[in-house]
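hey so i finally got around to running the thing on that chain from the lab meeting. sorry it took forever, my laptop kept dying and i had to restart like 3 times. anyway pasting the input first so we r on the same page abt which one it is
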Amino acid sequence: MFGRGGELPESIVLRDVTLRDGLQDEAPIPTEHKLVIFDALVAAGVRELELTSFVRPDRVPAMADADAFCAATASADVVRWGLVLNRRGVERALASGLRHLQFVVSVSDTHSRGNAGAGASEALEALEASMAPALAEGATVEVTLATAFGCPYERVVEPQRVVEFARRVADAGAASVGLADTIGVAVPTEVAALTTAVVAAMAEQGRPVSVGAHLHDTRGLAIANALAAIGNGATRLDAAVGGLGGCPFAPGASGNVPIEDLAHAFEAMGVNTGLSVPGLVEAAGLACDAVGRGVASAVGIAGPRFL
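ok and heres what got predicted. didnt touch it at all, straight out
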């Protein structure tokens, strides 16, 4: 069922993306409110999270406090990731003290033009150039491949194109590659096949390049897709409390898979996440209240099984 002999690993990394992906398409909330959510996530056991993005505040107003938010969380014992899109973003992130930088490039030309103002190949070339100064400063760089399983404009994306993009960013120095189901169209068989192919391509690099998955639950398949990804070599899953999140440049993209649902499922199956499900549910309430939305996670509504 899960691939690789039907076995799941002993542990996985669930990286929380609430504060970046979960909030990027919402009305801005004060930095003080973000800090309350941040503290709740850390208290729930989160040790790796997307903190913010260094983008133009006129395009993504919710991230306008990126520099101040980095300064306010500098002493926390967690891995803080910052999203950057270009050299200017790299400079801002490094100046703010971040040493884990995440780039995003779409494998779909039409989505790339809306998201980055350039076609996919051109955006990839610009990304490679922007990665160089980050790597020169000793930063850890990850690249997420958006629309890896389907595009809102072009529909099906060929898996081989995704593999080629993964090879390119790994060759440029990325330590990790993320496969993003940006609009929630993937099914488990597709996730299993693409994850297997990308993991195999990364194994040819001659150095460790991990593979993760960034899944949206638009059509209710994110948990099944997460199992398919982890069962076929992915080691990390991105998720947000309460199911918050979306993409302002991808029509139809709804919330991320809820991290409390993932933690609940994997812990019940004997896979260690290091997270407290009740703590995540508490953080979900804080985050959803802050943006005026209801908690959309199954565990947040029904509670953990066998209370």
